[in-house]
């Protein structure tokens, strides 16, 4: 790739990454839980998930669905650790093993088969529910889906504009 084309794409990604932070700084005061430090990192991560999903609208929709499923599965695993509380130390590991098995069957269903996105969303939910004071299923669902959507939209815009740069410099 020629330096100029590479530089333009790198600049585009840098500018849009900065814009994700601007959106976060404007949006985070209105997102629960109160007192959060911002969730721009979720948007940044989901813009990369858009690329992993193939940088296509179909991949973006599958990623969006995977985020919802991942948050739901992680929350079910967290609740399961309460149900399996009698297992003590083994409650969370057992709950993970128990619920991941049926979750893996989403791979057999079109539109639900983007398992990497599901795991990324689930891991994000675990982190938020563990380390953000006041986090619960409903406010984390809204916060993570909001920021995932921002990132997926930014990922789509970056893919479209990168394609235009590619075409421009291919002449």
Characterise this structure:
The protein has six helices and no strands. It is mostly helical and 171 residues long. It has one domain. Helix 1 packs across helix 2 and helix 2 (40-52) crosses helix 6 (137-170). It is globular. The model has no long low-confidence stretch (mean pLDDT 95).
Q: Can you describe this structure in just a few lines?
A:
The chain has 171 residues and is mainly alpha-helical.
Write the topology of this structure.
Layout: H1 3-27, H2 40-52, H3 57-83, H4 91-104, H5 115-131, H6 137-170
Q: Roughly how much helix do the residues carry, as a percent range?
A: over 70%
Percent of residues in β-strands:
under 5%
Q: Which stretches are poorly predicted, pLDDT < 50 over at least 5 residues?
A: none
The global form is globular
| Count of discrete domains | 1
Number of strands: 0
* SSE pattern: HHHHHH
First-residue to last-residue Cα separation? 13 Å
Rg, nearest Å = 18 Å
Q: Can you summarize the main beta sheet?
A: none
Alpha-beta content class: mainly alpha
Q: Roughly what is the average pLDDT, rounded to an integer?
A: 95
Discrete helix count: 6
State the oligomer.
single chain
Features of the shown structure:
171 residues, mainly alpha, 6 helices, globular
């Amino acid at each position: 790739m020629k330096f100029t084309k590479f530089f333009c794409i790198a600049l585009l990604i840098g500018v849009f990454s900065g814009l994700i932070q601007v959106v976060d700084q404007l949006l985070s005061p209105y997102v629960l839980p109160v007192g959060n430090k911002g969730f721009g990192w979720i948007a940044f991560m989901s813009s990369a998930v858009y690329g992993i999903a193939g940088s296509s609208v179909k991949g973006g929709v599958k990623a969006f669905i995977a985020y919802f499923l991942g948050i739901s599965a992680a929350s079910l695993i967290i609740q399961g650790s309460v149900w399996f509380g009698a297992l003590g130390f083994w409650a969370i590991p057992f709950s993970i093993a128990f619920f991941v098995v049926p979750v893996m069957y989403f791979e057999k269903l079109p539109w639900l088969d983007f398992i990497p996105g599901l795991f990324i969303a689930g891991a994000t939910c675990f982190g938020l529910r563990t380390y953000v004071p006041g986090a619960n299923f409903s406010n984390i669902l809204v916060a993570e889906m909001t920021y995932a959507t921002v990132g997926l939209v930014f990922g789509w815009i970056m893919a479209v504009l990168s394609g235009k740069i590619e075409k421009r410099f291919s002449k």
